[in-house]
Amino acid sequence: MNLLWKFNLVWGCCVLLVIAGCQTVPKSEEFFQPVSLEERSIQTRIYPTDDEVKILSACVDILLDNGFQIKEVESRLGWIDASKIKHIQYGGLFGARASVVTRHIRGRSGAIAVRVIFHHKGKVKDPAIYQEFFLKLSQAIFLEAQQI
Amino acid sequence: MKKHFRIGIIFGALAFTLLLTACVSTQKRLLDSDSSQLQIRSIQTRYFDTVDREQMLRTVMTTLQDFGFVLEAGEVELGTVTGVKWINQRLMRITVSVRPRGETQLVVRANCQIGNELVNDPVSYQRFFTALSKSLFLEEHQVE
Description:
The complex is a heterodimer of chains A (148) and B (144).
Chain A: H1 2-21, H2 28-31, H3 37-43, E1 44-47, H4 52-65, E2 69-74, E3 79-88, E4 92-104, E5 112-119, H5 127-145
Antiparallel strand pairs in A: 1-5, 2-3, 3-4, 4-5
Chain B: H1 2-28, H2 37-44, E1 45-48, H3 53-66, E2 70-75, E3 80-87, E4 90-101, E5 105-114, E6 117-118, H4 122-140
Antiparallel strand pairs in B: 1-5, 2-3, 3-4, 4-5, 5-6
């Protein structure tokens, strides 16, 4: 019985080693695989303004309104990093991250491109989420312009 | 009893010596690398004929986003941008630094790590720099 137990233990270890060896190692081709044009267009909108700080401020407000915490802002680079951690039912946690990058479009004065990427258990690909964000951003910029 | 005590002391001293030796060898390996420094540096570095550091950093950020990286840190004064992404449950981290070189050029250095390993495959870096050059070219030539 003891011998059988030892035999099973050895085999068990072998199987575990094989499984560990099967873990896929990422190939170098995967390191710099560009995202699709469609994905990029879902994440990007162009706003008719020259005021990048105004756009960034509006983005910060929207993220804060939606429960995100601002981790970093670098206005000279036009970048916001925000995250959201929420306690949900049965002691679970909900985590999300948002990364916003703005840039002036060269050759088109008064145009700023805003690109936002949401992450929640991987990259968020649902266009509706991005549409909602950009709708809120448009409203915020409009309200600010009208000083409402 | 005394004999056992002596043996215990000898083993203890041996274990302590081994521990010290291990510490020394680890410290010596602190600045170790698998490849030669010059080789790594040449793989990771490219020169660009522009002096607009801020614009270069912004283009680096756009390029990293295009490759699915999440931007984690960015600093204009130091001229560095860091991005991360998950590939097959392993974390890939890239740090790009932009520094002036003379009065007409910028040096861009990208450093990639996957897990705790340094990526030293030249093709990967080539892919990144080709995309960066394209982005710069598109912006320079006002193409959207």
